[in-house]
Design brief:
Layout lengths: L12 E7 L6 H13 L2 E8 L3 E6 L5 H9 L3 E8 L4 H4 L3 H4 L1 E2 L5 E2 L5 E5 L6 H13 L4 E3 L17 H14 L3 E4 L6 H7 L2 E4 L7 H9 L6 E4 L6 H18 L6 E5 L17 H8 L4 E3 L1 H5 L5 H10 L4 E7 L13 E2 H11 L10
Parallel strand pairs: 7-8, 7-14, 8-9, 9-10, 10-11, 11-12, 12-13, 13-14, 14-15
Antiparallel strand pairs: 1-3, 1-4, 2-3, 5-6
Helix pairs in contact: 5-6, 8-9
Bound molecules: phosphoenolpyruvate and manganese (II) ion.
């Protein structure tokens, strides 16, 4: 069939304009005026209070408009991408998207790593003991929740700042980077200050302003964003985009985002959630970002954690996030799904047969 545009159909464009934080309203108005005068815009224009304008054009961004936009005082960055294409899909290479862990290990771009530790930080010496044991088994980062999002307000909510302090000490003693969750804006600064990788949990995947602010946080730490347990892959990728827009606004050179399949809610009740193994290659095809799996929250039962770990690795996961404790039955949070340090060591040995698991260091 012949193409009326001779193969050159106008590419709709989304233009992203980032402003200095103290730029005020005037440069935004000027940018909008230029975009509306120079190109035909869809009505869909968004202005985030934080200083980002996203405007959809019916065609490409003209070089003159681009130049004029860049010269508006208060504009600090400009990006344009075909409308419908995500930043996560092609704005960065796989190499730029890889996230470093301990001892030269990394997640993504061929790197494989395991993040392990208790669901929640319970005490300093216990955390250190777990950290040393998972490190000896080959883990390249330590996980542990200091702030816990809990379904019931009567459940253990974590040690909060004390928990962060213990994580920092465990890092000092073992050299393992620490992965811990921020659950809202109130503690974002303190978590971003101490964590090496900031976790955003499944329940926050649809908290869009939070995602944007986590991405834009000046500390610039990598973010481990879990898939919402009731979210489709497309919705997950859109959530990732909020984080990446934050990154763009903050002027980051790299995306620093790790995706994590942690199970979705289905009609099945034999497991806590259903690990969507297919999401791993699909996310890898649709983004450049590292994709890991969390078999612990998916299984909800420590018996199935090794099986799901191997399934995820066989599907091509770039890493795993596993809940481990020296005395799992007594863990204060997520005990049923937490494996022992012995079971973790065995699992790591078994994984070596199917994945490039780095040696202990
Ligand atoms: C966790 O990692 O302990 C956690 C709360 O995870 P999720 O957000 O996947 O439930
Ligand atoms: Mn947990």
């Amino acid at each position: 069939m012949s193409n009326p545009n001779n193969g050159r159909a106008a590419v709709k464009t989304t233009v992203l304009v980032c402003f200095e934080s103290d730029a005020g309203e005037a440069p935004v108005r000027e940018a909008l005026r230029l975009l509306e005068a120079g190109e035909k815009t869809d009505p869909n224009v968004r202005w985030f209070d934080e200083g980002l304008l996203a405007a959809k054009l019916s065609g490409p961004l003209a070089p003159e408009t681009e130049g004029r936009l860049k010269r508006i005082p208060g504009v600090q960055r400009l990006a344009a991408l075909p409308t419908g294409r995500r930043l996560g899909a092609g704005a960065f290479s796989k190499a730029e998207s890889a996230v470093p862990l301990a001892a030269g290990a990394s997640l993504g771009d061929g790197g494989f790593g395991v993040i392990a530790g208790p669901c929640s930080v319970e005490g300093e010496s216990l955390l250190l003991e777990i950290a040393e044991q998972v490190k000896a088994a080959g883990a390249k980062a330590l996980r542990g929740g200091a702030y816990k999002p809990r379904t019931s307000p009567y459940s253990w909510g974590g040690l909060c700042e004390k928990g962060l302090e213990y994580l920092v000490r465990a890092r000092e003693k073992t050299g393992l980077p620490i992965v811990t969750e921020a659950i809202d804006l109130e503690q974002l600064d303190v978590v971003a200050k101490h964590a090496d990788i900031l976790q955003v949990g499944t329940r926050n995947m649809t908290n869009f302003p939070f995602l944007f602010r986590v991405g834009a946080h000046p500390a610039g730490k990598p973010i481990l964003l879990k898939r919402g347990f009731a979210s489709s892959i497309e919705e997950y990728l859109d959530a990732v985009e909020y984080v990446l827009l934050g990154r763009l606004l903050a002027g980051a050179e790299r995306p620093g985002v790790i995706l994590c399949e942690r199970g979705i809610r289905t009609f099945e009740t034999a497991t806590r959630y259903t690990l969507d193994v297919a999401s791993i290659p699909i996310l890898q095809e649709r983004t450049t970002l590292p994709v890991i799996a969390d078999p612990s929250h998916a299984a909800g039962n420590r018996k199935w954690v090794p099986h799901l770990s191997k399934a995820a690795v066989a599907a091509g996961a770039d890493g795993l996030l596993i809940e481990v404790h020296t005395d799992p039955e007594k863990a204060w949070c997520d005990a049923d799904q937490t494996i022992s340090t012995d079971a973790f060591r065995t699992l790591m040995e078994e994984l070596r047969a199917i994945a490039p698991v780095p040696a202990a260091s």
